[in-house]
Amino acid sequence: MPIRLPWHTIDTVLLDMDGTLIDLHFDSHLWQTLVPERYAVRHALPLDEARRRIEQHYGAVAGTLNWYCVDYWSETLGLDIRALSRELREKIRWRANVIPFLAALKRAGKRRILFTNAHPASLEVKVAELGLDAHLDAMVSSHQLGWAKESPQSWQALSQREPFDPARTLFIDDSERILAASAEFGVAHQLGIARPDSQQPPLRFARFAALNDYADLLPLAG
Prior knowledge:
Layout: E1 12-15, H1 25-42, H2 47-61, H3 70-77, H4 81-87, H5 98-107, E2 111-116, H6 120-130, E3 138-141, H7 142-145, H8 152-161, E4 169-172, H9 176-185, E5 189-193, E6 210-211
Parallel strand pairs: 1-2, 1-4, 2-3, 4-5, 5-6
């Protein structure tokens, strides 16, 4: 179903990466399947026990930079997360119609800024695989700012690094909590992603409209 936005009032589009531009299936498989399997082998544990311990680690740092930090997890779990990511490179894929959407934004003169919680090492793997940087005007990892996107300080730091007018900005992300953080900062327009992982059921958003396919935003009109 087409989604109409007031494009004449939007100058900047902030875009999450994992689950928003890229199918989240890569990250889901890495963190929910491959990491527990390798952790179980490394520590001689049954897989169920390995999953339980990892979930405890995940829960302890959820919403913080460490939750997204490749180096933190490599040290905490005793695994080479960079190497595991490279093993799964073939699972790194664009979401449907992302490139036509980004091209339409460029033609319309909108600034396209990637704003991700992904660690620079994760970003590097995805740039190498998909050439993300060729389709964007700027890329910012929250690790460069010192706060996760859930934090108001992160939004203030982003506005200083890549100046934008929140009142004339659209933010697209698959996390309702992070969309809410952007709204609290003053970003005027938000869109969620209905199915960030193509292999999982859709999400439900309580406060924000959710996008099924970037084709629903094309052509840019309004």
